């Protein structure tokens, strides 16, 4: 495709449940192609399945897309020249085109009851035949069928699939696909309530909205020939069809569920896009991760910003093979993108997680802490666990952890007292002289530096693992550092029986 060719693409979700990462990837690919070519990205809501409609699903999907940085040019909330953008508001449009197909001889009215269809299916199953419509109403005289419709008899509209020959379809990823027409069914296009099914409504909307490329999952391949035939019946130019790879479970076995990802060890991870934010992932990492599940630029480049993806995305490099969802890769990308953030930006993103963890702090209190943890966190929700000690008035260290390695409580208390004397004399503002003094304390007491600093880390942070200790003391300040040291020394002395 000429990169200068403008495209019109659409993301058309059905609001029947939570917003899955598979939908997010489809929306992302649409968005990248639109932005790369200076084209338009349309959001359309396919809400004709009223039985499965979930009221909050549309808003969750919009929230997720905007979190990812995927904005639409036309849609139900921003308007556009092809409004309305909800299928439930376009019913009259579909009815017109449904009748047109009947009038052209490409579709017919079907009056079969659910009971009759169920009976036919059971008979076909008993005879080990493919279950499909048996064509009873296809053989009706059109005038008789119209009279029954005019009389108010319940009916659907079915597409009249050719019974011989073959249908040839072309997919961007898979090339030409040929299917024997004898193996295809006469699908229902308009339900008895007058609402169209996806097979009709989506195609009508795509034509009227000038869609040039249709991205969708490979699960639509079985009905791909039907969609091609409908385009041909209307005499419309087809869009470029792009059937994307399916997602596999992290184990690589089995298609990814729409409820959860199942790991090889039997564990589970949520696969809904808005959950990623709650779990501490940042949108830059999610976009990078999603883009690479089904597309690659080359065999070694992995780090991409949204701007990089807009520049480098190509239909030619999409991969039709199923992609295993790798959450370890998401963790990796999240850490890499976190480290690429400006400290002030990261501070603002971390603040809600600290407040959610119960820390009543302001952004300016968090800002000096960020440089110490930016290289150490993979997800934003790890930050309060790693750095919460900065904002505690008091630390209650685990008495057992306070005792130095291969030391007694009394020896640990004595070492801590010598260290405290250095802090009171030198302060904690200047790291180099304080570090030298503390190392001298360890040497004089016949200790390894690690033994002494291990005691100090527990005393001051309450944690075995923390950001750099001396830099942390610098931020905490002399008063609070001294106070925590005195608390720890008292705890050690109590253990020693002093």
Set down the secondary structure blueprint.
Elements: E1 8-11, H1 21-37, E2 40-43, H2 57-68, H3 91-103, E3 107-110, H4 114-126, H5 142-150, E4 156-159, E5 166-171, E6 175-180, E7 188-190, H6 198-208, E8 213-217, H7 224-234, E9 240-244, E10 247-248, E11 261-262, E12 268-269, H8 273-278, H9 283-291, H10 306-312, E13 323-324, H11 327-339, H12 343-356, H13 363-366, H14 370-373, H15 383-387, H16 399-402, H17 409-426, H18 431-444, H19 449-461, H20 469-476, H21 478-496
Parallel strand pairs: 1-2, 8-9, 10-13
Antiparallel strand pairs: 3-4, 4-7, 5-6, 11-12
Helix pairs in contact: 1-10, 9-11, 17-18, 17-21, 18-19, 19-21
Say how many strands there are: 13
Percent of residues in helices comes to: 40-55%
Class by helix and strand content? mainly alpha
Q: If you compute it from the alpha carbons, what radius of gyration comes out, rounded to the nearest whole angstrom?
A: 32 Å
CATH architecture of the largest domain, by name, is 3-Layer(aba) Sandwich
Distance between the termini: 81 Å
Low-confidence stretches: 262-267
CATH superfamily of the largest domain: HUPs
List keywords for this structure.
two-stranded parallel ribbon; three-stranded antiparallel beta sheet; Rossmann fold; mainly alpha; 498 residues; 4 domains; 45% helix
Protein described:
It is a single chain. The protein has 498 residues and is mainly alpha-helical. Helices cover 45% and strands 10% of the residues. It is built from 21 helices and 13 strands. A 3-stranded antiparallel β-sheet has the order 3-4-7. A two-stranded parallel ribbon has the order 1-2. It has a two-stranded antiparallel sheet with strand order 5-6. The longest helix has 19 residues, at 478-496.
